[in-house]
Amino acid sequence: MNGTGQQPELSSVVSAKGLDLTFQTNDGPVHALKDVNLEINKGDFVSFIGPSGCGKTTFLRCIAALETPTGGSLTVNGMTPDEARRKRAYGYVFQAAGLYPWRTIAKNIKLPLEIMGYSRQEQDERVRKVLELVDLAGFGGKFPWQLSGGMQQRASIARALAFDADILLMDEPFGALDEIVRDHLNEQLLALWARTGKTIGFVTHSIPEAVYLSTRIVVMSPRPGRITDVIESPLPKERPLDIRDSAEFIEVAHRVREGLRAGHADE
Amino acid sequence: MKQIMAVLTVVATLIGLWYLACIPMNMQGVLVEAERAGAEVAPPDAAARREMGGVSLALRNGFAVPATWAQERPRLPAPHQVAVELWDTTVLKKITSKRSLVYHGWVTLSATLLGFGIGTVLGVLLAVGIVHSRVMDMSVMPWAIVSQTIPIIALAPMIIVVLYSVGVQGIIPKAVISAYLSFFPVVVGMVKGLRSPDAMQLDLLRTYSASKGETFWKLRLPASMPYLFASLKIGIAASLVGAIVGELPTGAVSGLGARLLAGSYYGQTVQIWSALFGAAILAACLVGLLGLIEKTVLKRMGMA
Amino acid sequence: MTLVAFALVLWGFGWWLNTRLAEGPHSDTRAVRLAIPLIFGATVLIVWELVVRGLNVPLVILPAPSLIAARFAGSLPILWADFVQTFVKGALSGYLIGCGAAFLMAVAVDRSDFLRLGLLPVGNFVAALPIVGTAPILVMWFGFDWQSKAAVVVVMVFFPMLVNTVAGLRETTAMQRDLMETYAASYWQSFFKLRLPAAMPFIFNGLKISTTLALIGAIVAEFFGSPTLGMGFRISTSVGQLALDMVWAEIVVAALAGTLFYGLVALIEHHVTFWHPSQRR
Fold this sequence. Notes:
Chain B is mostly helical. Chain B is about 75% helix and about 0% strand. Helix content of chain C is about 80%, strand content about 0%.
């Protein structure tokens, strides 16, 4: 899916060409990413799925400039990932909420705002807005350890939304939560995406989660980590939870599963 | 590898700083000696020199710098002086000699080990009692914890004198001090260790209807080992300090503490420093030995 | 002999009372948790008193608690002066200087992986050594007055504090550091907003260990020479005069000072690190 030819240059947010990353470890070099080519356009919801070790998290971390590729090119908003990081182009949501226990929820959300030098008034305003966005209004004064796991993860999403990053990178954000909470958060995340129009990169282990959320599903496979398939979702933008019982949904899920299996057969 | 390099660098830096510190520390004394020997000293007036700092004196009397590392009774002996004294008093002296540091070290070490052994055994026994008896836990444990916050070493001189007045002297009084100093850390650490199995592990043994004794031998005791070793290391260091301090008040003639005290009476700085390093080496060996035992035991038990 | 028999009976009664309380229905209430150790302590004191009187134990071996209390009440000015000399001037000033210097050193070291790697084992090693032994040297350098005691305290508290602070400043998860990275936070921003607060439990651990070390250092250093004042001086001279009631009175002062000092630091800790699992109620 290298759509640079048809798409106007402006709408391409992330562009990876021939990306390579090799880690030097004590057991010799590990090829974490090999020849990864991908365009992510503005407003896309892209999921990365694959078995562990396939490089999906590594790729996300490359976009966020938390890892440095050893080959190929990668641009974010037309800049290097590091420049984009310094321009604060993305919010990153980790697998665990990672809220600071010594700060209240509101103060946690203020953390990036303080670092980026927003005024006191602006900080309060934004905290109020994002707390409403993730359905946590009224919990600003609580400490993280006084909330449930699902609420903590919502607060960490609010923290990533608080500043004006147009890219949201999420690394298995709901992986540690139970199924019921997860469903609920998936639904809320879709609503949030529709409202804010952010570009989202989303790493997951779960096929249904990937299919339910994404406009595009990137299937990856390990040793070396690479992209084996990119599936465009035919599902409509408006997605109630029960869309997961529809024939279309099952069809896409099937294709993802086939893609994952094909990746394994390559070995 | 990188770690070893880093440690060596830090140690080398410290030794370098030590040599540097010797210069201003010893300059006054060196200049007095140099003047007596007929050398040109700046400024020539002794009273004016006394007013000046060691650094500025060193800057004006560069020739005297090497002498600051070779004085008979320096304020701060140079590292090699201490090393030579250590070598002389350990390897070159017969260990039965009153001037051998090995002899003095053994006097202190024997008291330390005896006290440490007593303190550990009593500490473990009390910990077992505390874990199994709610009354003991609630009445004794708070006091054991409080005892960690008070300088109980202040009791040392009194113990020496009281035991002396009832006719007990020699190794026992010092061992008593060593014992009670290692006793409390062992109690607190061991109670923590015996309580470390979680509810699930205890419930499992319950489903086997294991007796209290079986639970103790098969779960609590093995689980407490890492905690026991951690507190043993604290305990033996405290025991050694106790034995050394126990040698101070009676004017004992042998032992590392006695060497420290005698050195400070007669201004024998090199002797003080070598006794200090002797004590440090002894402490390091004891803690290191415990660390080694810990590693072997925990490895056997599959914990490390 | 009747007094001794009475002591035994009283001991039995105290134990019986505590057993009733500990195994009774209210054993988890705060009052009972406080009452049991107090009853135990009181029983020990009374038994001590009775046995000493009953067996006519001479003063030079063990003075009765009542005698110690009388001596304590009768020597308040002396005890206070000794306390000021040893605790306020020697221990406290050394504690502040030593902990402060160790903290600054830890912050400086933390920027360099190489230094930290090298200094941490050395610091751990030194922290286990009998540093009290430097007392004769420092007394020689800084004189008999409180300055030399403060110097001993500085040397004693420095390494435990350094090791704890350095370890604490590393006590952040990779995820927390990555988060700061994605915000493009500067070194000092991530220091003040992440690493320093995360290090607080460790820093306070160092501060708490140091309270006891400070008192030990200040008292033991006085055994090597002091003006005619100070808790260590009073203990060693009173022992020489066989005035054991005075020795015990000083030990009571040392115990109170140590416990209150530790308690104060623990109280501050509770307010600063309220968020830490060990502090949550």
